[in-house]
Amino acid sequence: MASSETHHILDLPEFDGAPRLLIVVAPYYKDIADNLVAGARATAEKAGAYVDLIEVPGALEIPTAIAMAARMADYDGFVALGCVIRGETTHYDTVCNDSSRGLTLLGLEGICVGNGILTVENYDQAAVRADPEDQNKGGGAAAAALHLISLSRKWARRTKGIGFKPAESFRIAGKPDGSNQA
Predict the structure, then answer these.
(1) What residues form the annotated binding site for 5-amino-6-(D-ribitylamino)uracil?
(2) Mean pLDDT on 116-138
(3) What span, in angstroms and rounded, lies between the C-alpha atoms of 32 and 14?
(4) CA-to-CA separations, 110 to 16, 31, 60, 107, 178, in angstroms, rounded
(5) How far apart (Å, rounded) are the C-alpha atoms in residues 180 and 182?
(6) Residue 25: its pLDDT value, please?
(7) Binding-site residues from annotation
(8) Are 12 and 67 in contact (CB under 8 A)?
(9) Global pTM value
(10) In the UniProt entry, which residues are flagged as the active site (predicted)?
(11) What gap in Å lies between CA 81 and CA 140, rounded to an integer?
């Protein structure tokens, strides 16, 4: 049963230039995934973001796909979407823990990721959470990615007067031109 608590939701950030989002979805439970994507797309559209979508086989592949895209493509942020429903084995725990851990590690590397991988006990819980007209967890994941992009852009524009600044040129060995001749 879903809680009747109310939660504070931040207003969407505003952007000078439209952010580029990649939604990475595992459509194992297709109708749940479609609702998550619909919510994420609607939220991204409200913020003026460009959105691309790719599908991967399962929740464990989502962090890997995001890591690859972060290295090889031009996106400002990522939205991870999928659904893991508890079954009869411990595989549920592995998928939940490892997909979440993978996304957290990406975030700690500075990659802007919104986590919308549902981890639920049953299908009904997933349906409520995925529904754009109910809990809209897909929209929430997109909003999280957009907020992180906004922070990233804010801090990228700042110049700090303290900290490490690399020298214009440096010598590893030999003369500054790289030769080893004295």
Answers:
(1) 28, 59-61, 83-85, 115
(2) 98
(3) 29
(4) 21, 31, 20, 5, 33
(5) 6
(6) 98
(7) 28, 59-61, 83-85, 88-89, 115, 129
(8) no
(9) 0.84
(10) 91 (proton donor)
(11) 11
DSSP 146: H
137-157 vs 30-46: helix axis angle to the nearest 10?
40
Q: For strands 77-85 and 113-120, give the pairing.
A: parallel
SS3 83: strand
Distance of alpha carbon 35 from alpha carbon 139, whole angstroms: 10
For 2, left (φ over 0), alpha (ψ -120 to 50), or beta?
beta
Domain range list for the chain: 29-155
Percent of the chain with pLDDT over 90: 81
The active-site residue out of 7, 8, 91, 147 is 91
Q: Which of 95, 97, 112 has the alpha carbon at shortest distance from 58? A: 95
How far apart, in whole angstroms, are the C-alpha atoms of residue 153 and residue 148?
Answer: 9
Tokens of 8: 């504070």
113 pairs with which residues across the strands? 78
29-155 topology per CATH: Rossmann fold (3.40.50)
Is residue 147 part of the annotated active site? The answer reads no
Q: Which residues define the annotated binding site for (2S)-2-hydroxy-3-oxobutyl phosphate?
A: 88-89, 129
